Amino acid sequence: MVNRRSFLKTSGALAVASMLPGLSRGNSIFKSYAANYPAIGLQTYTLGFLLNNKEIDTKVALKQIADIGILELETATAYTGGLYYGHKPKEFAAMVNDLGMKWIGNHVFGVMPKNNQFGKLTNFRDNLQQVIDEAAEGGCPWVICSMSAESTMDEIKETTEVFAKAGEAAKKSGMKFAYHNHESEFDKIDGVSAYNYILDNTSKDEVFMEVDLAWATQAGMDPVEMFKEYPARFPLWHVKDIDPSTNRPISVGKGKVDFKRIFENSQLSGVQHTFIEQDGAKTIDDVAESVKWLNKNIYS
Q1: Which of 242, 252, 188 is nearest to 216 (CA)?
Q2: Taking every annotated instance into account, which residue ranges of this chain make up the domain Xylose isomerase-like TIM barrel (predicted)?
């Protein structure tokens, strides 16, 4: 196993930590979170290269995440067959809770596409009860679909039916269901986008959206206008930025997403949880930079 000190050195987190205004739960980085906004969370897909590394103890990795100011986690473990970074849900939740964080939910697939190139994945269509049961064991209030087949009208309709069932099942179990977007959901098929079709054909009390602010922006959408059109349907956010020169994710505040305007209008969305996500992050420093920017420019 890699010990905490060597992990900090190899990740570069010590250097970034020195730039932050304190890392204990009693210090200012945590006190400065504005009451108007949810605590800063992390989608762990961002740091999969750490959490999936069998040479790094899971709790050591989670400790580094807590130390840079993350208070809530959303995981992404559809490949792992009931394990969450090598641990059963109850065990993983205990580690998260011991570090002062909360485990909010986990990403799994919705409807697998017919030309499936992802392999065998946990998904809402085939494994709904398993997803619900594991979330319950971990104490998660949310179950979330990371992506789903939506390239044809038939796929959009099937996805919508599966989401309706997932939302109903989640509600019966005291949880909530949400769908995370990429760009393609906003493409129109037969005059309608998958995104609008899902919102218009599901219960506003059972099917919610986890809006990825970067991918929505990249698709030409205005998140604030989305909030106005479908108020209170966006309780989960992925706080992600896009580099305008590469059209790829970058640390929050370095790209083209207008976070200040979006956060100023956050009450329209019904936001409850926000998760930093950066596809392609190389070290924990990338996340620490995003936390620092949010703390200075949004939460201060």
Answers
A1: 242
A2: 83-294
Q: Token pair of 24, please?
A: 């204990």
Count the domains in the chain. Answer: 1
pLDDT of residue 35: 58
In angstroms, rounded to a whole number, what is the distance separating the alpha carbons of residues 62 and 46? Answer: 13
Q: How many angstroms separate the Cα of 266 from the Cα of each of 48, 185, 271?
A: 28, 22, 6
Residue pointed to by tokens 């970074």: 85
Range(s) of the domain holding residue 293: 4-297
pLDDT band at 24 (very low <50, low <70, confident <90, very high): very low
What are 244-288's pLDDT values in tens digits? 999 999 999 999 999 999 999 999 999 999 999 999 999 999 999
Task: Name the token pair of 121.
Answer: 């994945």
Rounded to whole angstroms, the Cα distance separating 174 from 273 reads 17
| 94-105 per-position pLDDT tens digit | 999 999 999 999
Q: Please give, one letter per residue, the 3-state secondary structure of the chain.
A: CECHHHHHHHHCHHHHHCCCCCCCCCCHHHHCCCCCCCCEEEEHHHHHHHHCCCCECHHHHHHHHHHCCCCEEEEECCCCCCCECCECHHHHHHHHHHCCCEEEEEEEECCCCCCCCCCCCCEHHHHHHHHHHHHHHHCCCEEEECCCCCCCHHHHHHHHHHHHHHHHHHHHCCCEEEEECCCHHHCEECCEEHHHHHHHCCCCCCEEEEEEHHHHHHCCCCHHHHHHHCCCCCCEEEECEEECCCCEEECCCCCCCCHHHHHHCHHHHCCCEEEECCCCCCCHHHHHHHHHHHHHHCCC
